[in-house]
Amino acid sequence: MNSERPQSRERPEAREQPDEAAPDGRGRPIGRRVFLGTLGLGALGVAAAPVLQRGLESFLAGASDKDPTGLTGLLPNGGGFRYYSVTSSVPRKSAGTYRLTVDGLVDRPRAYTLADLRALPQTRMVRDVQCVTGWRVPRTPFEGVRLSRLLDAAGVRATAGAVRFTCFDGAYSESLTLAQARRADVLVALRMQDEDLGHAHGGPVRLYVAPMYFYKSAKWLSGITVTEDVEPGYWEERGYDIDAWVGRSNGRDDEPTN
Ligand SMILES: Nc1nc2c(c(=O)[nH]1)N[C@H]1C(S)=C(S)[C@@H](COP(=O)(O)O)O[C@H]1N2
Ligand SMILES: [Mo]
């Protein structure tokens, strides 16, 4: 399931290490504090088995924010996913406080509430998720509003060529060409694994770009800006391919995600 292939070249997101990183004896750097924290978490998981899923999920997410080893992804409720954030903390947004703005080269800019998004037709897709560092989670349901629908509602101007995505973590960004953004398998996702998107997975709303490596699927989505040209996103500034087709980019040969 989780076939970790040798990497063709080092991935920046795997290279991010905490200050006290030390070799684990097999050449793989491992943060001592993270490792001890992980062991403690394992014991807690046994002692506090009936803990509410939501609480454990956010606790796991907090731990794996600082986990360059991916070990927390192997703990209960990780479900094969690693939780990633490029910031040390992310504000929480509820149905009351969440907004998604659509602006830039459009005739009708607007801000959507969560209720607005939920009121639109929802599309459900079940595809594999593939991270560029190697982990893969098979058959993961995502559900939400097609990005193309929001773009059509906004009235994209003739001079537009791309879409830029921003996040309420205050740091992450992504982008797609307009043609990519209009694909039927690109969603503004409200649900994942048949549950409302939790904070750890980028809730209440994240982008889901099914045919591309998972870094394109920006978590904690807060802004969609139609632009003239593609502006490289957070990881793309740090070496990832902008066109991130699974198996046909980043020097990797993974199976497609369908
Ligand atoms: N805002 C934000 N979105 C993000 C990231 C991030 O660090 N911040 N990481 C990306 C990467 S590299 C991956 S693999 C997935 C991880 O999603 P998950 O944490 O739900 O498993 O989110 C992507 N979107
Ligand atoms: Mo990733």
UniProtKB/TrEMBL annotation:
<feature type="domain" description="Oxidoreductase molybdopterin-binding">
    <location>
        <begin position="89"/>
        <end position="235"/>
    </location>
</feature>
<dbReference type="InterPro" id="IPR006311">
    <property type="entry name" value="TAT_signal"/>
</dbReference>
<dbReference type="Pfam" id="PF00174">
    <property type="entry name" value="Oxidored_molyb"/>
</dbReference>
<keyword id="KW-0472">Membrane</keyword>
<feature type="transmembrane region" description="Helical">
    <location>
        <begin position="34"/>
        <end position="52"/>
    </location>
</feature>
<keyword id="KW-1133">Transmembrane helix</keyword>
<dbReference type="InterPro" id="IPR000572">
    <property type="entry name" value="OxRdtase_Mopterin-bd_dom"/>
</dbReference>
<keyword id="KW-0812">Transmembrane</keyword>
<feature type="region of interest" description="Disordered">
    <location>
        <begin position="1"/>
        <end position="29"/>
    </location>
</feature>
<protein>
    <submittedName>
        <fullName>Molybdopterin-dependent oxidoreductase</fullName>
    </submittedName>
</protein>
<dbReference type="InterPro" id="IPR036374">
    <property type="entry name" value="OxRdtase_Mopterin-bd_sf"/>
</dbReference>
<feature type="compositionally biased region" description="Basic and acidic residues">
    <location>
        <begin position="1"/>
        <end position="27"/>
    </location>
</feature>
